[in-house]
């Protein structure tokens, strides 16, 4: 089985090393040896450490490499939309198996890749695109196809989970926790994709597409970053027996789906609450199987390369036996509900005037917008007077309208924070 590797950065280098170190085992598992016949890179001659490959394999002509007749499997770990899309469409239409870790491309235009795979009669695998080494997509794609998945809730970004875990454990603010994450190598120099939820939104789209047999793109996902989470929010969560996580949440009802990414309070008794450091975890709920938990390292060169090689083995076996991977399942064609139609709960922290009638006036706003209050906590006096309110479930549009109306009250000096609440607090 002859492989073309597109990209030789952190993940690509680990793919090469694992292919070399595990060559005999991989041959035994597949029934034929794996051979790298070309590696596409941006620059030839760059120092790449002790990679066990001949320098003559490197090329800057990625498109030419995927067109070669002697290539059976194309592995793409470059990322981005273009030119990766052009390369992979060419490979798939040419009947070559494709393994990709490109979550951005799959979330933005996975339909084009799936259509090209169908046209070329080729395999498309992408286990490494979500949650690194955690076996997650294949169970959704295959193991649970005899069941109906109703909800997927996950921590799918290690950088934000490290930051929020650090804030929870130490009482640090967002900036201090981000600085620590950067120093330890968990955060990029520009962490925007992580902390603003873009990375998690792409993964949420992929998960929802597989779980609900419906094409969902990143543009369909409601996204809210976690830069506004404060040390005060964490302290308030602790008082409620909760913690705060950046969650991707995909839900299905009879005629539509909802997909969102945002920070949320969850009770410390929830399985996701104990997921710390840069680990990922995804909680899947299905009608027959019940509740399932997938946990592990969601990023890093070696874990991601492990997932890539798992797909390589599957694709190579299929080619040898003349079979194919399961094709895309998108028969449901369910519409995606806007965030306003999603049913959730809010935790609202208000700075208010310290005088009679404040609580009644605030409660009246909730009643007007048909939002039921679950708990109210008053604290402080005079300039430090606060109201902390947790609602019952309601449409997000009603909750957002309530918050907007509260901001117009003269007795409300400011809305200190608003967080969604998940998991039965």
Alpha-beta classification: alpha/beta
* Overall pLDDT level: 94
Contiguous low-pLDDT stretches (5 residues minimum) are: none
Gyration radius, in Å: 24 Å
CATH superfamily of the largest domain: Dihydrodipicolinate Reductase, domain 2
User: Any idea of the CATH topology of the largest domain?
Assistant: Dihydrodipicolinate Reductase, domain 2
Q: Globular, elongated, flat, extended or rod-shaped: what is the shape?
A: elongated
Number of separate helices: 14
Helix share of residues?
Answer: 25-40%
Report the CATH architecture of the largest domain.
Answer: 2-Layer Sandwich
Number of domains: 3
- CATH top level label of the largest domain: Alpha Beta
Structure description:
- Strand 5, helix 5 and strand 6 form a beta-alpha-beta unit.
- This protein is an alpha/beta fold.
- It is elongated and about 80 Å long.
- The chain has three domains: 152 residues, Rossmann fold (3-Layer(aba) Sandwich), CATH 3.40.50.720; 161 residues, Dihydrodipicolinate Reductase, domain 2 (2-Layer Sandwich), CATH 3.30.360; 83 residues, ACT domain (Alpha-Beta Plaits, 2-Layer Sandwich), CATH 3.30.70.260.
- The protein contains 14 helices and 17 strands.
- Helix content is 37%, strand content 25%.
- Strands 7, 8, 9, 10, 11, 12, 13, 14, 15, 16 and 17 form an eleven-stranded mixed beta sheet that branches.
């Amino acid at each position: 089985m002859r492989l073309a590797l597109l990209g030789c950065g952190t993940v690509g280098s680990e793919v090469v090393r694992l292919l070399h170190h595990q060559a005999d085992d991989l041959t035994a598992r597949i029934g034929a040896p794996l051979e790298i016949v070309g590696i596409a890179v941006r620059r030839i001659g760059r120092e790449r450490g002790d990679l066990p490959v001949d320098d003559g394999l490197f090329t800057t002509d990625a498109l030419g490499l995927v067109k070669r007749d002697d290539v059976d499997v194309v592995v793409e770990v470059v990322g981005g939309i273009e030119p990766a899309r052009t390369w992979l469409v060419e490979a798939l239409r040419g009947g070559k198996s494709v393994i990709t870790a490109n979550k951005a491309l799959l979330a933005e235009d996975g339909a084009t890749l799936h259509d090209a795979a169908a046209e070329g009669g080729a395999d498309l695998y992408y286990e490494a695109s979500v949650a690194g080494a955690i076996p997650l997509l294949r169970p959704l794609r295959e193991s649970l196809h005899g069941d109906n998945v109703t909800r997927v809730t996950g921590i799918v970004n290690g950088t934000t989970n490290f930051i929020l875990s650090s804030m929870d454990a130490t009482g640090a603010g967002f900036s201090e926790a981000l600085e620590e994450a950067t120093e330890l190598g968990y955060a990029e120099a520009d962490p925007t994709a992580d902390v603003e939820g873009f990375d998690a939104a792409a993964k949420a789209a992929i998960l929802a597409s597989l779980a609900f047999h419906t094409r969902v793109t990143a543009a369909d996902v409601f996204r809210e970053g976690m830069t506004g989470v404060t040390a005060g929010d964490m302290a308030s969560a602790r008082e409620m027996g909760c913690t705060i996580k950046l969650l991707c949440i995909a839900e299905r009802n009879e005629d539509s789906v909802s997909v969102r990414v945002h920070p949320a309070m969850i009770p410390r008794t929830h399985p996701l609450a104990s997921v710390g450091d840069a680990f990922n975890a995804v909680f899947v709920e299905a009608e027959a199987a019940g509740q399932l938990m997938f946990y592990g390292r969601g990023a890093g060169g070696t874990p991601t390369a492990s997932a890539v090689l798992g797909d390589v083995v599957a694709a190579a076996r299929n080619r040898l036996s003349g079979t194919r991977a399961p094709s895309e399942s998108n028969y449901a064609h369910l519409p995606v509900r806007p965030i306003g139609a999603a049913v959730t709960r809010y935790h609202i922290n208000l700075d208010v005037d310290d005088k009679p009638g404040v609580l009644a006036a605030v409660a009246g706003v909730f009643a007007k917008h048909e939002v039921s209050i679950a708990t109210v906590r008053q604290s402080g006096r005079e300039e430090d007077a606060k109201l902390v309110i947790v609602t019952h479930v309601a449409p997000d549009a009603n909750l957002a309208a309530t918050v907007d109306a509260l901001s117009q009250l003269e007795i409300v000096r400011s809305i200190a924070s608003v967080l969604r609440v998940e998991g039965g607090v």
